[in-house]
User: Fold this.
Amino acid sequence: MTPPKTSLIFLLCVVASLLSCGGGHGSEEKYFLVSTNVQVPYWQTASLGFTQGARDLKVRYEFVGPDTYDPAAEQQAFEKALSTKPTGILISAADAKLLTTDIDKAIASGVPVVTIDADAPDSKRLFFIGTNNYQAGLAGGHRLAKELKGKGNVVVFTMPDQANLQERLRGYRDALETTPQVKITQVVDIKGDPRIAFDNATQIIGKQRDKVDAFVCLEALAGKEVATVLSNNGIKNKTVVAMDTDPDTLEWIRKGVIVATVSQKPYTMAYFGLMMLDDLYHRKLNNLQTNWATDSFAPIPAFVDTGSTLIDSSNVDSFLQQKKSATDNSK
Assistant:
């Protein structure tokens, strides 16, 4: 049976409307991604995912945050974004305690907030999207033990106040329980400053060269600094396990100075996070302030694990090709 002409025209108009405006999105919609440091490659990759998501949805967006690791400045960026009455906010909480009140204020005002990468679990944020950091630490720890053949002293570079890095270190420690002769002998707080990593690595190889067998970097900044120090001093018998996929880190893997790095998925975190915020805007929850994490029938998850993987000499080139394709598609 041929459908009535008026019905067919109506259906075509509806489909065309959805396609042309990204599924009924309005000009009032604007989403923010608030980062801990907009200049580092990790967050540039997240920005690519956020940008691609916004283009797919045809919505306005803005990527904001400090140019250096500065939790107070990130808080100010969040407050400024909230003052514009945004449709939704993604944020990586550099200092969860500092941001909790602001996140709760946003939720109370009806602005959905989702944390990515680094959580603020005591806040009323709706849920967290990111890496299972404990599992990432386990994977790094098992690789470390294998490289050291079950024996060696390890120095860890981290930022101890960040909950996600605490979980990574816990994963490393648990992984090393099966190889008690691999010992973490020192934990260095780099305070978000790569120069601290460089200076401490220089001091260590100067005074403790024979007492340190490996370096573990739990965040993106330190790996390339440690590798540079080792290379500059002609030291080739140390194991370095890094974190994330900074271009210099990947190049040191290709050169054989860094044995492996744990790769997260910041592109996926930001892309999927924006999709979830958009869905929350168009299919609003009855109450943003409900503690959905304790509700067995919650319409949203408590945690979305975006996964992680080890990058080493066997797959670094394929990773770089994937990154190039994602970058080209976002232009």
